[in-house]
Amino acid sequence: MEVKLETTSPLVTDADALVTFAFEENNPAQGALAELDRATGGRLKELAASGELTGKWLEMVLLHYPAGLQAKRLLVVGAGKREKFDPVRLRRLAGAAARYLKARGAKRLAFLLREPRQDATAAQFVAEGLLLAELDLDKYKSQKENRNGIESAAILGAAAGAGPALERARAIAESENWARDIANEPSNQLTPSGLAERAEQMAREAGLAIDVLDEKRIEQLGMGALLGVARGSAEPPRVIVVTYNPPQAKPGGPVLGLVGKAITFDTGGISIKPSKGMEKMKYDMCGGITMLATMRAIARLRPPVKVIAVVPATENMPGGRAIKPGDVLFSLSGKTIEVLNTDAEGRLILADGLEYARRLGATHLVDAATLTGAIVVALSTVNVGVFGSRDEFTRLFLDTAREAGERMWLMPVDDEYLEMMKSPLADLQNISSGDGGGASTAAAFLREFTADLPWIHLDIAGTAWLDDAKPWMPKGASGVAIRTLVDFAGKL
Predict the structure, then answer these.
(1) pLDDT tens for residues 185-244?
(2) Taken in order 8, 9, 10, 15, is the CA torsion positive or negative?
(3) What is the average pLDDT value for the chain, to the nearest integer?
(4) Containing H/E element for 394?
(5) 171-489 CATH
(6) Are residues 238 and 214 in contact, defined by beta-carbon separation less than 8 angstroms?
(7) Known catalytic residues?
(8) CB 3.0-4.6 Å disulfide test: which of 96, 174, 318, 360 passes with 472?
């Protein structure tokens, strides 16, 4: 989809559909809608008086061939209560409108911005919503849904100087779609080696340096935690390292290390998962794909900081050589880990990934993983769980998430949680000996492999996948945290 800014009057745009939104208030046809109401001979006020146009959240009111407008259709989308309107809602509203019109054959649309989001970033939120609405979960269907889709979208009424915000939206949304498309792949189509190949293609196109470690190099380095998880699978593991090294980076400046869990399929290993819902466990690679997509966007936006992504990739299978509860693994850091549950494998591969990112020169670390069911219990599918080792570093990240319109919540990682992860046989055990707090004990485990560097852990287990389609996005991978990570890289 081509998205552009236009100064054309909404009355004369010849798009297949003109889109705008109405708030839930006594007269939803007031303000910016008043001009459209006058042009259509008072139709919007009539619809408001009849109760058809109320402004309730994502209510769709569609007029065909509206008098006084050159657009073939006018779509007024409910924006809900004015005081609750924020970047998240604007992005979702734009996406919902695009998917609604795509299903009705529209090819060209125009989106009219209105108060209170006419600042320079409003165009970015709208463009992101429109572009994210493009992706459909029909790749393997013989009969495609919405085969043609929307070809172009014009944003009307944007603030002056919104051009750079629009370019930023393209870089981020296209990278999110890249991530969502890969994360939706079934595991027989995307193995660890296949993920590495996708990453190599992306890096070549983006101008990024890439190094893929095969199983021999992984063993030579001593990544025993990753190799332990990989042993049960016939598919060999990979470690994908992507580097962005801008010439304007300050000598001795910060180096951001992004570490992502990429379990391309998780059976749970010997501690096997229940069969119900196991098909979804291809999504266990979302953390790693998030970091690769972040690098893709960073390469386009070029912040002045060096960034290294480390993505350990493997399957977790119950093969004849699989690790067993009670086994002890030797991690790259030298710390030993007693395996009490083979379904707590993500923290094992991240342990080696974090240590390797540090060895490559990372001075600040952020990891992302679909790590624990406990975070879903705590935060459901609404917020990403955020754990951090330095208050200032973590606050900056949370502020960035808020500005980016992504919901994240600070979680505790006190020393008491680490005590629950100590093993009588090894340095650590991979699940807690206590009751509850599973997301925090997992974070405490990971912190042991950060060498006290500033570090943030993102548990995206509840937010990386949509079990049900939303009006603005189909069922499947969500692309969560990418826009926050991209913005955060530019602030270090």
Answers:
(1) 999 999 999 999 999 999 999 999 999 999 999 999 999 999 999 999 999 999 999 999
(2) negative
(3) 95
(4) helix 391-404
(5) 3.40.630.10
(6) yes
(7) 273, 347
(8) 96
